[in-house]
Amino acid sequence: MPAPIDFYFDFASPYGYLAAEVIDEIAAKYGRVVIWHPILLGAAFKAMGAAPLPSVPLKGEYVQRDVARSARFLGLPFRMPTHFPIPTQHAARAFLWLNDRNTGLARKFARAAYRAYFVEDQNISEADVVLAIAAELGIDRTELADAMASGAIKDRFKAEVDVALARGVFGSPFFIVEGEPFWGVDRLPQLEKWLAGGPF
């Protein structure tokens, strides 16, 4: 079996949203599987001593234009959320818990949560919003709420973020395949070339 693609994403990342819509399809063309890993960009920014892109002078305005253009390029809907950026622990914990039980359903939830935020302008930093998104997919709301609030899933998510940082992950989306890191949705053509023919 070819090595899997590790896909790191934050639910507050607009570029992560775009990547989540296409990465599985790209991987399937080359017989690869994708392992999805939710992260918190805040932890990476803290480790780097950096600030979120929207707050960076000049670059922040460019990013808003670039994300919208990138979405049009990929044929995906996009609307800049009213509240941006936001903390995404609730969505990430929900994803982790679901992923342990049903990876396909977890990915449906992830894409639904991303669309809720970056298309429908729902504030997914709120636990009730996350639970409503999950309920629409047939996920038991009470069971998921209990899981999201548990110490076990909180510790698990912290450990996942720590592992990501140890692997050098500092952005979203971030891909690692065969030890090679690729940062950003704009690196997907390079990732695909790697998948097609190996190192270059």
Task: Please write the string of helix (H) and strand (E) elements.
Answer: EHEHHHHHHHEEH
User: Tell me, what is the CATH class?
Assistant: Alpha Beta
Secondary structural class: alpha+beta
CATH superfamily: Glutaredoxin
Assembly status: single chain
Strand order of the largest sheet: 2-1-3-4
Largest sheet: 4 strands, mixed
- Strand fraction equals 5-15%
Tell me the domain tally: 1
* Helix content range: 55-70%
Number of helices: 9
Overall, the morphology is globular
Rg is 16 Å
Low-confidence stretches: none
Q: Based on DSSP secondary structure assignment, what is the total number of beta strands?
A: 4
CATH architecture, by name, is 3-Layer(aba) Sandwich
Reported by name, the CATH topology is: Glutaredoxin
Average residue-wise pLDDT:
94
Distance between the termini: 21 Å
Domain DSBA-like thioredoxin: 5-195
GO molecular function, one term: isomerase activity
Family: Belongs to the GST superfamily. NadH family.
Keywords: Isomerase
Q: What does it look like?
A:
- The model has no long low-confidence stretch (mean pLDDT 94).
- α1 links the parallel β1 (5-9) and β2 (34-38).
- The longest helix is centred in the first third of the chain and has 16 residues, at 14-29.
- The protein is an alpha+beta fold and 200 residues long.
- It has a single domain (5-197), classed as Glutaredoxin, CATH 3.40.30.10.
- α1 packs antiparallel against α5 (103-118).
- The chain has helices at residues 14-29, 41-48, 59-74, 89-101, 103-118, 127-136, 141-149, 151-166, 188-197, and strands at 5-9, 34-38, 174-177, 180-183.
- It is built from nine helices and four strands, in the order βαβαααααααββα.
- Helices cover 57% and strands 9% of the residues.
- The protein has a four-stranded mixed beta sheet, with helices on both faces.
- It comes from Niveibacterium microcysteis.
